[in-house]
Specification:
Blueprint lengths: L5 H11 L13 E3 L5 H4 L6 H8 L9 E6 L5 H16 L3 E4 L5 H13 L4 E4 L9 H7 L5 E2 L9 H15 L2 E6 L4 H12 L3 E6 L2
Parallel strand pairs: 1-7, 2-3, 2-6, 3-4, 4-5, 6-7
Helix pairs in contact: 1-3, 1-4, 4-5, 7-8
């Protein structure tokens, strides 16, 4: 039997509760989970992993396709949370989708999923591998499932990223997204996911 560290055990509690949440009703399926600040993490507050588990406790266990995307600028504790979440999701047999990134949410997702089960990780790029910065190209080495979009190569990166996010939303059943309230591109992704009846879990950084 595989032994897990305390933080891995906490995140496994979170992912054990992630599952399908679909019905025939046209109801909004967005969960808002404000992330604690570093000061809060340093005080005697409830463990944020337990709080996230409580937010998702109503969900029934079932393997599914889950997208994790978000801001590049997130504190180290939140990067560790994302990494462990991606690790445990793939470890438990869920498929994880994300995009490229040298730092932040997407990079942490890739690191965690590669540790959990690389075969269950799919990375969708807004353009081609050759157009990514060298550090992103290095991170993509060894990932078995990468989708490139050379047809978007001449577009502005912001426009290509919006199309990339839509493709990720189309392929997932659930979206987990880390963002600030002033992140227009990511809010557009949330709106698109809600319009297409995806379960959306928003973790706000502010």
């Amino acid at each position: 039997m595989t032994e897990h560290s305390p933080i891995e055990a906490q995140v496994l509690k979170v992912t054990a509760s992630i599952s399908s949440y679909f019905d025939d009703e046209k109801t909004e399926k967005t969960i808002l989970v404000p992330l604690p600040s570093q000061d809060d993490l340093d005080q005697d507050n409830p463990d944020p992993h337990d709080e996230l588990a409580a937010e998702l406790s109503m969900l029934q266990q079932k393997s599914k396709s889950i997208a994790i995307i978000g801001s590049r600028n997130i504190p180290l504790p939140h990067q560790q949370l994302v990494e462990m979440l991606a690790f445990s999701l793939t470890h438990e047999g869920n498929r994880v989708l994300t995009s490229g990134g040298s730092s932040g949410t997407n990079a942490a997702t890739i690191r965690g999923a590669m540790r959990g089960n690389p075969d269950l990780l799919k990375v969708i790029l807004p353009q081609t591998i050759g157009q990514q910065p060298s550090d992103v190209q290095d991170q993509l080495i060894g990932i078995p499932h990468i989708i490139e979009h050379p047809e978007w190569s001449m577009m502005k990166l912001a426009d290509a990223s919006r199309l990339c996010n839509r493709e990720i939303m189309d392929e997932c059943q659930q979206l987990i997204i880390l963002l600030s309230h002033d992140s227009p591109t990511l809010h557009t992704a949330i709106d698109y996911a809600n319009e297409n009846d995806k379960l959306v879990t928003c973790l706000y950084l502010d």
